[in-house]
Records
---
Amino acid sequence: MRYLIQPAVIRDADVTVPGDKSISHRAIMLGSIAEGVTEVRGFLAGEDCLATMGAFRRMGIDIERPGPTELMIHGAGLHGLQAPDTALDLGNSGTAMRLMAGVLAGQSFAATLTGDASLTGRPMQRIITPLSRMGADIGSRDGKPPLEIRGNPNLEGIDYALPVASAQVKSAILLAGLYARGTTTVIEPAVTRDHTERMLRAMGVAVDQRDGHIGIRGPAALRACRVEVPADLSSAAFVILAGLLAERADILIRGVGVNPTRTGVLDILLAMGASISLENPRNMGDEPVADIRVRSSRLRGIDVDPGLVSLAIDEFPVLFVAAAVAEGRTRFTGIGELRVKESDRITAMASGLRTLGIRVEESDDGALIHGGRFAGGEVESFGDHRIAMSFAVAATVADGPVVVRDVTSVETSFPGFEACLGRIGADIVCRQGEA
Ligand code: S3P
């Protein structure tokens, strides 16, 4: 499948985007090992979260789906999962694999986790090392999936300083810590998204959090609760950018999660001169949400604060697009982690931007982007949802039509993307076709 996108007039609109991917994954995982029924509303029915749901069903969990975005998860308690009879295929989802490895580390059975071509190329040593220190036995192909996890019901708590800032690794260790004897403490080099900590607290687990140390005492039982999933700021970011780039538009996106561990993208865009405001701030369960108003803005190039990287980790593809139309140069540093996401996002963005006529200088852990105008052209997504959607947004202000190849991955995080962008005036047609 590919997108054919025509330049468009983006207009005033009032829209919503689908539920948060990180919170939806965690709702299934924690709901499955909690005691009682966890009711979820606003669940993201994208392929990544559906893969997690499928995996827990294969381990015996009864998950009802009364509506497309509603779930009733019949938790089986900490020790109620059953051994799956075949490997669990987690598709494209790094979050599913790394967090589930944490849960499986404490089981009294073995399970194999695998995924698609992208996922089986991603680094897993970062979870294998700490989980092995806790007592799990994890086989891999040189630190890459498939992972063969032979759980150990007698895990021991550890103190672990994360070598890379990663909410996935932090969460894997904390989830294993639920099963371990004693205290498990994770020390973060930079703040990362804290949805796991918030949901654990909502389910009755005491989480100690100070000065970059996050600790829990195991074994710790979870109590089912209601989870209301806010709209995903990482998906809203595409709509935000389309609004900013437009000639003249005023767009309201409702009920978006604005957890401060996720809002780096807003801080970076504000520093570039964007007109973005948060209206009607409120809490949805344990997460802060707001309606986000965005108005067309003239962006200027900046040196992006490396201190914001872990708070905007998934938004760099779309921020590269912002940089490409900003006046002057934008320098990104400290973003080496982007090279091990669903694709090498620095190279993927740099190559597509160059195809569209933008000057980009790439370094190991950064990029320097010279603002300009997009020409039409044909770009690769490298099978990466966020690359595909970033170029679709760029195309709304290009001088000619843009084709984005290989866009099926958009279903992993943003089902309905073309229709949502259509509501603000974009002209995106999805075509069957080579790649
Ligand atoms: C996620 C954490 C991030 C992010 C991913 C979702 C999570 O990964 O890129 O899309 O839900 O914990 P890292 O924590 O490995 O950077």
Note: The chain has twelve helices and 24 strands.
---
Amino acid sequence: MNTTYAEAGIAAITDVFAAQQKTAIRLRKSTADERIAKLKKLAATIEKYESAFIEAMYADFRKPRQEVIATEILPTLMDTRHAISNLRKWMKPKRVGTPASLFGASSYVQYEPKGVSLIIAPWNYPIYLVFGPLVYAIAAGCTAMVKPSELTPNTSAVIGRVIAEAFGKEEIACFEGGVEVSTALLELPFNHIFFTGSPAIGKVVMQAAAKHLTSVTLELGGKSPAFIDESTDLKDAAEKLVWGKFVNNGQTCVAPDYLLVKRERQEALINEMKNVIEKYYNADRQGVECSSSYARIVNDRHFQRISQLIADALEKGAHIETGGKTIAEERFIAPTILTNVTTHMKIMQEEIFGPVLPVITYDNLGEAIDFVNSMEKPLALYVFSKSNEKINRILQETSAGGTCVNDCVVHLVNHDLPFGGVNNSGIGKTHGFYGFEAFSNTRAVLRQRVGFTTVKTLYPPYGEKIDSMLKMMRRFFA
Ligand code: NAD
């Protein structure tokens, strides 16, 4: 049985690590069937605990049941199913070409498990962001030590139960707790670290990994913009943007952080978004705070942080177009849209990670592109437009981890697309094959024939024969 960190203490971390190192060597030989059996067990145990997860997430930040299923349970089960269906293909060695200079040899790439992995997860999608990476660790044949977030303690406790029930700790173990547990884990020479969280802590993780030259996948965040131009279908864009921004109460790594809107379309877009907010969250006119479709901010610290971002923006001249209402005891912040926003406001200087949407206007597209390029590269960038020319220009002249054209957030659902950031928004990719690859060492194998080979013609002693051989090789191969 697994034990939680609180029960076992930090000493258990090193014991479990040592046990997992042994298991990891054994798992190098694990077959697709064995890994698939583990993935099925994981999926079945998650489903068994589904109602416990729903209750826990409500207790943690009033996440609506349907959102728990749609954005946590279903994506986890879909990732598992996709991995199960594709694992044999992913695990197969991939034959690659061999240059004529190595005539007679053959070459392939073999995917071997990296070994003992560490998965550190954030609180905002606590179920999916623990189990998503875990699916790929299992698929790749790794062991895993998992550290869920301390900010969603109810959900993390259920995660701990699921892992303890499905696996022995010598293979997969969960350590609940905060920074002290993360720090103790990061001391160890893992073979791979998969971290999801903020860029600031991503740097701490990368520094710790550097001590052991451990490879990292860093799934981070940032300010993801959405472009609206003169051709955008505003009703359609408003429906998608309001959902993408306010699902999970705006606490989504790929939520549109702010909008860049062609000046003459701002008023019409805002009117559309106001209508959509009413439709989604206030259909019975009781106020958004009474809606069972609207979650809450995770804790008081984040509630205060976001409230202060709004206050700072208002002080510096921003206008509230809708929302603005807060209820501290409930950690409720109404869906809020701000206009007249400038870069001097704190709200444009950090990832908002809450239900507040600043709108910035532009007169020409180049100006909006320059603005995006003056900031850190975002995790996602969205374009709502009917103009192929503008879409292509934005794609070509900006950089982002991923992009949706005429939609937002949903690119992460496609298993065939790599998911991740670039520089400040992340290093490495996940989902589907890319997730399997993150936990695999792509081992290069060259199989040489026995006897005569081209390379042997260059062996010492060096002399005229070798000189003419080199001359010939330069002529034919270089
Ligand atoms: P965070 O970086 O504060 O915490 C993430 C994890 O790191 C937690 O488990 C936490 O306990 C641990 N941690 C915190 N401080 C640490 C330290 N000093 N040393 C070692 N470990 C430490 O992030 P968060 O607030 O939980 O999540 C929000 C952030 O995560 C946002 O920036 C968001 O954009 C990002 N995020 C990214 C993705 C993605 O897939 N790219 C997904 C979700 C969230």
Note: Residues 120-125, 129, 147, 149-150, 178-179, 182-183, 186, 196-198, 201, 204, 219-221, 253, 351, 353, 379, 421, 426 surround nicotinamide-adenine-dinucleotide (CB under 6 Å).
